[in-house]
Amino acid sequence: MVKITHKNIDIFVKAHFNNLKDKLKEFPNSCKYSLEEVITAEPKKLHEIAEWAEGRKEEYKFMIGKYKNFTAKKKEYNAYDLASKLQVNVCPYCNINSTFTIENGTRPEFDHFYDKASYPILSLSFYNLIPSCHICNSSLKGDKNFSLKTHIHPYIDSFDEVAKFSLKLKNSSFYHSIEGFYIELETTDKRAKSIIEVFKLEDRYQKHRDIILELIQKKFVYDSSYLDKLLTKYEGTLFKNREDLQRVISGGYIDSNEIGKRPLSKLIKDILEDYYNIKYKLIVDLNIGKPNQNKKIKKKPSNNSKSHPRNFWKNNLKA
User: Nearest CA to 160 among 256, 94, 265, 254?
Assistant: First the structure.
C-alpha cells in the first residue's frame, strides 16, 4: 500500500551484502548468478533469478537456515539492524499496523515477496525482504506465491497511485453513525486487486469506519472559515501551513509522500479528497441508496427540516 523509500537505500543494500558474504561461503560456484547478484538484486532481477531457480530448491535449501540465523538476536549483523536502518514504521502492505523497531524489543517481520520455501535462493536477498506486520506476513500471506507479474512490490510500485478509498453512503445517518456508510477500495490495476484480496484490506478497513465518522464530524466543526481563523492566529507557531493544520485535525498525514509515517493515513487522505465529491452529490440530489442499489429511501425528513442531511451539509459543511 505504501512504497518503501529511503535516500540511503543503495548504501543499505551494499552493507547488507558485505555483512552476509562471509557467512555464505558455501554458496554454489555453479550458480548462474554470483552471490552478490543474488543478495543485491533489484526486484526485476529477483524475478529473473526466481524463474531460473524453479526446480532448484534442494540445492539452495541451506539459505533458509541462514535466514533463520539472520533473524536471531545477536551482536553481529541481523534483522534488527536492517529494520532499524530502513525505519519502516507502518506496514507497507496494509498501512494499518505499526512496525516500529525497538532495540532488544520488537521489529517488523520480514515477508519474503518470493516465498522462501519455493525460492530458498532468495531467502536473504535485500529486495525480497519486505518489512511488514504479523497479520499481513504470517496470518494472511504465509507461503502464498507472489511475483512482479501478479502483485505490487513495495520497493518499486506505489499502491497509493493505483488504488483509492471512497466513501459509499447507505442512508441519511452517515454523519452520526457508522451504519450510514461503508468504505470501498477501488482500483482497475490487477496486481493491486491481488494485494487487496490477499491482505483482506476492504474487510479490515470496514473495522475503522469510526475514524471516517470522526472525519465527517470534524468537517462540520472545522469549516473553511474556522480553519482560516486558526491559521491566521497560529501559522508559524503551532502550524507551519494549512496542510499541517489539516494533519493535526484529521489525525493522519495527507501528503502522499508521508502516508507511511502513521497508520491509516492513506485512508484519511483519500476520504478527505473524496469528501468534496460526497458533498456535491448530497447538495445536488440526496438519492442515497444501499450498496449496488438505486432505490430511494422511502422515509426521509422533510426537505425543510433542519435535520434533513441536504440542509445539514449545505448549510454547515463549507468547502
Answer: 256
Per the listing, cell 478509498 goes with: 165
In this prediction, residue 309 carries a pLDDT of: 42
In this prediction the pTM is 0.84
Where do the domains of the chain lie? 9-141, 162-316
On whether the CB atoms of residues 168 and 142 are closer than 8 A, the answer is: no
DSSP secondary structure letters along 150-216: TS--TTT--HHHHEEEEEEE-STTTTT-GGGEEEEEEE--HHHHHHHHHTTHHHHHHTTHHHHHHHH
- Decide if 172 contacts 180 (C-beta within 8 A): yes
Give the separation between CA 309 and CA 254, rounded to whole angstroms. Answer: 27
What does the alpha-carbon distance between residue 303 and residue 314 come to, in Å, rounded to a whole number?
12
Which residue bears the cell 490487477?
190
56-93 pLDDT tens trace:
999 999 999 999 999 998 889 999 999 999 999 999 99
